[in-house]
TrEMBL record:
This is Methyltransferase. The lineage of its organism: Bacteria, Bacillati, Actinomycetota, Actinomycetes, Kitasatosporales. GO terms for molecular function: hydrolase activity; methyltransferase activity. SUPFAM superfamilies: Nudix, S-adenosyl-L-methionine-dependent methyltransferases. Keywords: Hydrolase, Methyltransferase, Plasmid, Transferase. Residues 244-371 form the Nudix hydrolase domain. One of its GO terms (biological process) is methylation. It comes from Streptomyces alboflavus. It comes from the Bacteria.
């Protein structure tokens, strides 16, 4: 079963569940707090911060009861998007007239793609029913820079079955209250996988909360993930003009020492790392050394270049690949070079980075230092570095000659 079929199974299951309760006339219960697990315990709405006056999205909102609580008690303006027609109908019957709450029947990803970005997005158990590779890129676009994200997902089921080690759905049986049990397809992933997917899509993970069942005999466990979108904005989109055959591969050189990170300004205004395209027959390390000297006048040796991996993304129909590289030793002071597009080189502290980074430079920097809050289009990253040359270790070993 592919991911599309898995999501279709889930949609049918929740429609059946909602229809069952519509026929019975089951009342929608009120809540007096946000509960991220299946029990009235653990963190509450404080996870989301002060919501007064903010635009908030409840993703896979179900009956809308949590969204209604945030509107009434926390001063938020909330859009509640739900894919199940019957669950949406139940929510509309109960909360359709509540000022500040908009109930939306739509696929979550399609809604994120057309809506204005939100200050806060949250989801209680909803992420597990949507393919993360479809959802997270849309979330990146649907969240304002610096915006907060919180979502809870199943970690261990009632049989003690632990999360999967691959991003693939698995069959789970939900003993839904007041209705028949439903078989669904859920993405139950390890914290490492959820973190990797978030980072790959421009989200910084701030923390993970463990929420266990109150009874020791109950194996069910939930994880609450707290994240935010990177705040610094990259700029100057690259051309979608097909490159020359030798120009599809580029390098970005990271020089960081006591004076800070080396950056320059392109004549078009963006801020960039030293770097450029790899020439025919040239090694990647050789390209780093050559571009560094041509653009800054600094000299380095190929043995002092550590390649971190390959970034792969797309600009229109063109696939672009960039290799971020850390230069651990170099000689000379950077200076503007004649006939080069980038100059005005300067050393910048990492906590003083500003908006306007060239997209490949932004991507290189967040591979090197994932904690940097730099917002940029997503790219696939395939690491080269071994255990002794991880980006974290490399960040601690650079120095100028």
């Amino acid at each position: 079963m592919n991911s599309t079929e898995s999501e279709a199974v889930n949609a049918r299951a929740w429609d059946r569940y909602g229809d069952h309760h519509l026929r019975r006339g089951t009342a929608v219960p009120e809540v007096d707090r946000i509960s991220w697990g299946f029990w009235p315990s653990g963190p509450g709405a404080e996870v989301l911060g002060d919501l007064t006056g903010l635009r908030v999205l409840d993703l896979a909102s179900g009956l809308g009861k949590h969204a209604a609580h945030l509107v009434r008690e926390h001063g938020a303006t909330v859009d509640a998007v739900e894919a199940s027609a019957s669950q949406h109908a139940r929510a509309s019957a109960r909360y359709g007239d509540l000022p500040g709450l908009t109930l939306i029947h739509a696929d979550a990803v399609e809604h994120l793609q057309r809506a204005d970005p939100y200050d806060v997005i949250y989801s209680i158990h909803g992420f597990a029913y949507i393919n993360p590779h479809r959802l997270l890129p849309a979330l990146h676009c649907g969240l304002k820079p610096g915006g907060r994200l919180a979502f809870s997902v199943l970690h261990t089921n009632s049989h003690g079955h632990e999360p999967s080690l691959s991003v693939a759905p698995r069959t789970e049986t939900l003993p839904l209250v007041g209705g028949e049990s439903q078989s669904v397809e859920m993405w139950v992933l390890t914290p490492k996988l959820w973190e990797d997917i978030c980072v790959d899509n421009g989200l910084l993970l701030d923390g993970i909360d463990q929420i266990d069942a109150p009874e020791e005999a109950d194996h069910v466990s939930v994880r609450l993930y707290r994240a935010r979108r990177r705040t610094l904005i990259s700029s100057r989109p690259r051309t979608n003009r097909p490159p020359e055959p030798h120009s599809a591969l580029g390098v970005g050189a990271i020089l960081h020492g006591p004076r800070g990170l080396l950056l320059g300004r392109h004549r078009r205004g963006t801020i960039e790392l030293p770097g450029g395209t790899v020439e025919p027959g040239e090694s990647l390390e050789g390209a780093v050394v050559r571009e560094l000297h041509e653009e800054t006048g600094c000299r380095a040796r190929e043995e002092d270049v550590i390649l971190l991996g390959v970034l792969v993304d797309q600009v229109g129909p063109v696939v672009r690949t960039t290799v971020p590289a850390v230069v651990t030793r170099w000689a000379g002071d950077p200076a503007t070079q004649p006939d080069e597009s980038v100059g005005n080189w300067y050393w910048c502290r990492l906590d003083e980075l500003v908006d306007g980074l060239f997209i490949p430079s932004a991507q290189c920097l967040t591979v090197w230092r994932p904690d940097l809050a730099i917002d940029h289009p997503t790219a696939r990253f395939y690491p080269f570095a071994g255990p002794d040359q991880s980006p974290q270790r490399v960040a601690l070993t650079v120095q100028s000659a």
